[in-house]
Design the sequence.
């Protein structure tokens, strides 16, 4: 595929009318052997996500919490652009590119349990498109409004097709009441084209609270009327694999119970980024890895 001629098969933020388009890519790319069973693959294909309970042992969760604690400490008061604070406060919300800045998270991002699952679903070698820690602390952790990650990665980063998989590793028990992730099952089969032009350097605002690239209410209603909303629940140590285009979001966390997670996005090497479909400058390295820095895992 030439970088100059990549066709925009998922136009979004082009006008003043939303639209729901059919997905034009498979969700499961091959029938390869790997850690996921055919029942797992079918569940992922039909629903757009797969919950792997107890993927990480208690000792690994304890180690990852320690690694995360170190990042939390370093990020306090940091002016680094990878550190994102909650809207309207200086509480740290997310830290991006931890697989680059921290050796321990670099190792976790290469964990064969995750990599082999990603390779199996995407049927190719993969690299880390984005990594982040979401802290969602007790009392102060704010919501993430409904969105498809792919919509942003396509418009703002130039990810051409839906051939990426996110993996969220849960470092706390996820209950219905501590700001856990909600997904609309099957929504990955539709692309909700959003309204409005993307402002310059939108990411500086959107990572605290997103305003562009958010779906309209009628489209959300349509998706939820068809397939409802699910909130996967599991103990710390679970990992949730989810398609890059599934519609998801989460409520704020007013409980005392943190909901920390580590998030790695694996993209197929056959789906490398092209210039953003918005026509704007690409977002910075810590949000979207581009050639020539690509490290195939
Ligand atoms: O803008 C992004 O790339 C990120 N924003 C959200 C709300 N979710 C996915 C991704 O980490
Ligand atoms: Fe997201």
Sequence:
């Amino acid at each position: 595929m030439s970088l100059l001629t990549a066709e925009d098969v998922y136009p979004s933020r082009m006008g003043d009318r939303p639209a729901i388009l059919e997905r034009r890519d498979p969700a499961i790319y091959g029938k390869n052997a790997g850690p996921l069973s055919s029942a797992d693959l079918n569940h992922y294909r039909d629903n757009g996500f797969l919950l792997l309970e107890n993927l990480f042992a208690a000792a690994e969760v304890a180690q990852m919490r320690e690694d995360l604690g170190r990042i939390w400490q370093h990020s306090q008061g940091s002016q680094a652009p990878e550190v994102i604070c909650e809207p309207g406060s200086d509480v740290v919300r997310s830290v991006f590119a931890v697989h680059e800045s921290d050796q321990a998270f670099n190792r976790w991002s290469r964990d064969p349990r995750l990599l082999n699952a990603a390779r199996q679903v995407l049927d190719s070698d993969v690299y880390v498109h984005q990594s982040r820690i979401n802290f969602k602390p007790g009392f102060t952790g704010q919501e993430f409004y409904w969105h498809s990650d792919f919509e942003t990665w396509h418009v703002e980063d130039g990810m051409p097709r839906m051939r990426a998989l996110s993996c969220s590793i849960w470092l706390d028990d996820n209950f219905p009441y501590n700001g856990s992730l909600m997904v609309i099952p099957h929504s990955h089969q539709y692309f909700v084209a959003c309204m409005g032009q993307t402002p310059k350097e939108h990411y500086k605002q959107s990572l605290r609270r997103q305003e562009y690239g958010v779906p309209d209410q009628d489209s959300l209603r349509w998706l939820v009327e068809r397939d409802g909303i699910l909130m996967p629940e599991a103990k710390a140590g679970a990992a949730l694999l989810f398609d890059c285009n599934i519609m998801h979001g989460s409520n704020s966390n007013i409980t005392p119970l943190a909901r920390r997670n580590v998030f790695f996005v694996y993209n197929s090497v056959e789906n490398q980024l092209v210039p953003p479909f918005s026509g704007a400058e690409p977002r910075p390295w810590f949000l979207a890895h581009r050639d020539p820095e690509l490290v195939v895992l």
Summary: The CA atoms of residues 25 and 156 lie 19 Å apart. The chain has a mean pLDDT of 94. The chain has one domain: 19-294. Residues 19-294 form a domain with the Jelly Rolls fold (CATH 2.60.120.620).
